[in-house]
Amino acid sequence: MGLLDDLRADRRAAGKLPRPGADKQQPALLLIPDISGFTRFIEESGSLQAPFLVADLLEILIEANTLNLQVNEIQGDAVLFYRLGPPPSVAELVRQCRRIYLDFQNYLRIVARDTGSELAAALHELALTLKIVVHYGRVSVARIREYTKLMGRDVIVVHRLLKNNITGSEYILLSEGYLATQDPAALQQAFSWTRLLPGATYYEHLGETPYHYASLSPLRLLLNSPEIDDDVPVGRGCALKVRRALRVPAPYAVRVINNFRLRPRWMEGATAVHYDVTKAGRLGTSYKVDVFGGQIDFQAVQQFEDEDGRLEYVEKISHFRLFPNSLLFYGFEAVTLDACLVTMELRYGHIASASRLVRFGQLRRLHRFLGRSLHNLAELVERR
């Protein structure tokens, strides 16, 4: 590579923007995932659970963070993320956007499975989806009491880009500010799974603003079939599963697992549980379990019986650093009137570590955790 090529590469790595100067502005990536259909869903769904579902979805967006982004603010149906410094490569950015979209849509699909619920009916009628706007520019960062406030022209630009001329409601929009930092060949390769198209919208005070965009719809082929982690044994995908027969009726096993107070008596390494006793037993209830010196947040998401009489209970796991946006599925299949087959399955989108050794080790450790927990559960219920 010659000197001129080196200089060009350095410009791209620095985002073609100067370092913070006298104006105190800094180069920053700005990224906004925006929930399309939010207002109509809240107003027309008729479900009291609708606002809580949207809150869960916003948390899903935040936990899908793979680029070490910072949350600047939550704006009703959107999250403004930022990251100071050089821009991520387009390959890293696309992986981030794919992760956000898949985690968001997979969670919606889980909620929509319970066809008997009012919330699921509303989701089938009033679809929610996602658009993601990405911009790279310069911002001023101000601290106002305990809050961080981003200011500057580029903050206005990224918000304006949410209103555009693009047909459809699920796409990635890349501003010219970000595109200018990337190699055209890398852009083409990163979007080989869809089409990156040119577009432009006129905004008052900003003028004609060009951008490129790509539909996220092709990713629907991956829903409920997560992208495979290279370190997961073939056939297991992004899931860990254990099974055990229990000599108790299936409804009894469900009641034991639903009883938050009993978690420390069977969950491996658990020493205490914290929850609001007035809300225990309700779907949507959150609780915390002290495990191995740390703490894991759980939330009851769903409980229903399928057409074959199989019972299922689902919990969302939050603030699980290495396995963000994980879901824990409990399946209960009656074998006889007094025995059932219980399955514990943890599904995750990705493992938040760049080290293959760490990822492999954590998967083995988590699989042992599930197996020992189910063994402890069997001992607890069979002593009754």
Automatic annotation (TrEMBL):
Top-rank lineage group of the source organism: Bacteria
Coiled coil: none
Ranges where the Guanylate cyclase domain occurs: 29-162
SUPFAM superfamilies: Bet v1-like, Nucleotide cyclase
Gene3D superfamilies, alphabetized: Nucleotide cyclase (3.30.70.1230)
Residues spanning the membrane: none
Protein name: Guanylate cyclase domain-containing protein
Source organism per UniProt: Hymenobacter glacieicola
Phylogenetic classification of the source organism: Bacteria, Pseudomonadati, Bacteroidota, Cytophagia, Cytophagales
